[in-house]
Design brief:
elongated, 111 residues, 3 helices, 0% strand, mainly alpha
């Protein structure tokens, strides 16, 4: 598994960049290869789209991390009370897991 993204550093890059939306522009570069020109156009379109997509993706990743942390906390709470299924901690665990499910569904855009 790769190292986790530094979401705060990425958010700082977003904040420092020129506000969007950005539009791809044709530029003149010294390459006469038509393949290079098509690749340049694809790259500029990607960069322009990333200006709007990256802040949304950072927000989604932060919310997902918070939901995972909440689920981990619920699991730790449930482990402390394994034999008491009707206890208040178990009820809190079940309620928290329902909220977690709702949050994950909201992130993916479904119910």
């Amino acid at each position: 598994m790769s190292a986790p993204l530094d979401l705060e550093a990425i958010a700082a890059l977003v904040e420092a960049a020129t506000p969007g939306p950005w539009e791809p522009r044709k530029t003149v570069c010294g390459n006469s290869d038509p393949g290079a020109s098509r690749q340049h156009a694809a790259n500029t379109a990607f960069i322009a789209a990333a200006r709007e997509a990256v802040p949304v993706l950072v927000d989604i990743a932060k919310r997902a991390r918070a939901l995972v942390a909440a689920a981990d906390a619920c699991d730790r709470e449930a482990e402390r009370h394994p034999s008491s299924r009707s206890s208040a901690p178990m009820v809190r665990y079940i309620n928290a897991m329902a909220k977690l499910r709702e949050g994950l569904c909201a992130l993916r855009g479904g119910t």
